Amino acid sequence: MRELTIPVSAATIRELHIGDPVLLTGIMVTGRDTAHKWLEETFIKKIKAPAPAKDGGRSDEEIYAELKKILAGSFIYHCGPVVAGLDTKQYRFVAAGPTTSIREEPFQADVMKHFDMRGVIGKGGMGPRTLQGCKDTPAVYLHAIGGAASLIAQTVKRVVGVYKYEFGVPEAMWVIEVEKFPAVVTMDSHGQSQHTAIFDNSKKVLEKLFKE
Amino acid sequence: MQPDITEKVLELIRRTSTDIPPDVEASLRQAIGDEEKGSAAQGALETILSNIELSRKNGTPICQDTGTPIFRVRHPEGWSTRKMREQIRAALAQATKLSYMRPNAVDSLTEKNSGNNLGGEEFPTIHFEEEEAAEQGGGRLVVELMLKGGGCENVGAQYSLPDESIGAGRDLAGVRRAVLDAVQKAQGLGCAPGILGVSIGGDRGSGYVASKAALYTTIGTRNADPEVAAMEERLTKEANSMGIGPMGFGGKTTIIDTKIVGMHRLPASYFVTISYMCWAYRRRRMILEGDRVEYK
């Protein structure tokens, strides 16, 4: 079991290969569909204007500056958590398993590169663009156990803050401090994807079954 | 006199979200032994079981995606469904406040999350059926609840047979091809190991209602028709031969059980509808008879 402390160096990422179990410790950020779309359109492709601050909150530009610092060497976790303490803002993660990652395929490689991240955590694996992104950045795709929400929530020691709360609880970007968050490398920075291998093998078996 | 069921439904939601039925847990436990020692598949199943135990102990949701709540209510003659709907909705909003449920209802046009799991007429889904008259044993209220997460819902599939791309004709052999194709396409994305609800016939809408309703039965419940029952068992076995495994990590356990139901159809249509349920197969039943309430 390899223990990784965030920020993780590029050299450490190159040492990881598919099948390696890891434990992550440090500060990461949750982000899923709305967050990825927002990052891509506002800061990477710049086709949408950043929103100004309202109701005493932060402007998109301010959030971006903070995210750049947090995400360098870190990870985005594809997760829409159940959070307690919404009324008092004493936030606590109650249930926090991974969501399906493939929906972020159009954005992921760009986002990883732009923020110099060391990878993403999710479930189900991702496609060729992200795999290439892992090679270039370098980064890894980490697979967490889908549905293991109570167990993973226990590794979340502290909710540091939340960005874009207006996206709704599942879609907001929660900044969390984790300790020994368990995951498995299923896409590495050497162009290997465990998902492709299993897909191809199952397809072969299916074709054989169709001949019966 | 129709009682207020809000509190009792709240308890039903809590139990459904934080604990899975014993038959599902037993099947998952059994699967650990089938996987190779020290494999990623076995590790995934061990994590899944630890998570189930922890959720039960702490009363926290098994999965953060607390899913689409699908209620099936069988009620005595004469009860007001309008009142029951209001009470079920109140219970769901309360369950969300208590963090048994994640706020999960998003307006597709405005992208706004309602914050309390209530949205329009369709969210949550509630099916009402009037039970038989009291003298025929229909004096009780039965509320079933299923929480179906988005990951597994997204890998559901509907085939219109004949489908030449998979060589599937309008018979049980064609159904087999459609189901196996759907399992291969789903890979681990539906949070395998999964449970399949399959309906044959109906229209595009009723097909999915029936394929989900099939999931209310316990693991191992077989279709009364022996030929269909044999196909259910065969499909589970063949699906598992594809090596997709828990979470798609590779392994022997991809599908725990397959349930097939037949429906009437138009002569022109032949739909095969597959609902995939993730391992976090959250379903519970509440039976209310007079003052006595029982949760199963």
**Which fold does the CATH topology of chain A refer to?**
fumarase
Q: How would you spell out the order of helices and strands of chain A?
A: EHEHHEEEHEHEHEEH
Flag low-confidence runs of chain A: none
Count structural domains of chain A. 1
Q: Superfamily at the CATH H level of chain A?
A: Fe-S hydro-lyase, tartrate dehydratase beta-type, catalytic domain
Unreliable stretches covering 5 or more consecutive residues of chain B: none
Task: Tell me the β content of chain B.
Answer: 15-25%
Number of strands of chain B: 9
- The strands making up the biggest β-sheet of chain B line up spatially as 2-1-3-8-9
Describe this structure in words.
The complex is a heterodimer of chains A (212) and B (296). Chain A is built from seven helices and nine strands, in the order βαβααβββαβαβαββα. With 212 residues, chain A is of the alpha/beta class. Chain A has one domain: Fe-S hydro-lyase, tartrate dehydratase beta-type, catalytic domain (fumarase, Alpha-Beta Barrel). In chain A, strands 2-3-6-7-9 form a five-stranded mixed beta barrel. In chain A, helix 2 crosses helix 4 and helix 4 packs parallel to helix 5. The model of chain A has no long low-confidence stretch (mean pLDDT 96). Chain B is an alpha+beta fold. Chain B has two domains: 112 residues, Dihydrodipicolinate Reductase, domain 2, CATH 3.30.360; 127 residues, no CATH class. In chain B, the strands form two sheets. In chain B, strands 2-1-3-8-9 form a five-stranded mixed β-sheet. In chain B, strand 1, helix 4 and strand 2 form a beta-alpha-beta unit. In chain B, helix 2 runs antiparallel to helix 3 and helix 6 runs parallel beside helix 8. Chain B is globular and about 55 Å long. The model of chain B has no long low-confidence stretch (mean pLDDT 95). The interface between A and B is large, with 50 and 54 residues.
